[in-house]
UniProtKB/TrEMBL annotation:
<keyword id="KW-0812">Transmembrane</keyword>
<dbReference type="Pfam" id="PF04290">
    <property type="entry name" value="DctQ"/>
</dbReference>
<feature type="transmembrane region" description="Helical">
    <location>
        <begin position="55"/>
        <end position="75"/>
    </location>
</feature>
<protein>
    <recommendedName>
        <fullName>TRAP transporter small permease protein</fullName>
    </recommendedName>
</protein>
<feature type="domain" description="Tripartite ATP-independent periplasmic transporters DctQ component">
    <location>
        <begin position="40"/>
        <end position="166"/>
    </location>
</feature>
<keyword id="KW-0813">Transport</keyword>
<keyword id="KW-1003">Cell membrane</keyword>
<feature type="transmembrane region" description="Helical">
    <location>
        <begin position="20"/>
        <end position="43"/>
    </location>
</feature>
<feature type="transmembrane region" description="Helical">
    <location>
        <begin position="137"/>
        <end position="161"/>
    </location>
</feature>
<feature type="transmembrane region" description="Helical">
    <location>
        <begin position="96"/>
        <end position="117"/>
    </location>
</feature>
<dbReference type="InterPro" id="IPR055348">
    <property type="entry name" value="DctQ"/>
</dbReference>
<comment type="subunit">
    <text>The complex comprises the extracytoplasmic solute receptor protein and the two transmembrane proteins.</text>
</comment>
<keyword id="KW-1133">Transmembrane helix</keyword>
<comment type="function">
    <text>Part of the tripartite ATP-independent periplasmic (TRAP) transport system.</text>
</comment>
<keyword id="KW-0997">Cell inner membrane</keyword>
<keyword id="KW-0472">Membrane</keyword>
<comment type="similarity">
    <text>Belongs to the TRAP transporter small permease family.</text>
</comment>
Amino acid sequence: MAIETNSAFGRWERGAGRLATTLVVFGGACLVLACLLTGVSIVGSVTIRPLPGEIELVEALCGLAVFAFLPYCQLKRGHVGVDLVMSAFGGKAMDYAQLAGDLIVAVLFAVLTWRHGVGLLDKYGNGETTPLLLLPVWWGFAAAFVLMLANLLICVFVVAADLRALRHGNSIVVSMGSH
């Protein structure tokens, strides 16, 4: 995707890129923190005692990292590759297959986000907590839900970018190199 300068679509494109990049940094920070917690717990178990609840925190941080990386993956079209069979049918077929794949991913993430929201309401309502630290489980669900909404926004942008490229007679630009 070539970034435009002043159009509304160009602003949307820059915003999507900033959002995805910011979430990648957040996801990376989650993984670094998870590694530090694990290291502190290992050192603690050898010297004094392990860090209580470290496993609960590491699980949550790794889960958040995965959700944080999804928007960037979608923005760079890392979810769908169409070049194995479709390349024999030419560029236009590959473009329409890419659009179909991006639409499928967007619909799937819409359903996943919806169902995750239902799960969030359930976790909030039942008061479930983690076993050791007694943290409310819904906190992690809420953070993941926000990340899923961000991914859904990126999915909608990618489909809009695909449609715009096809409408203007351009090939869909795939950053990961599948075209």
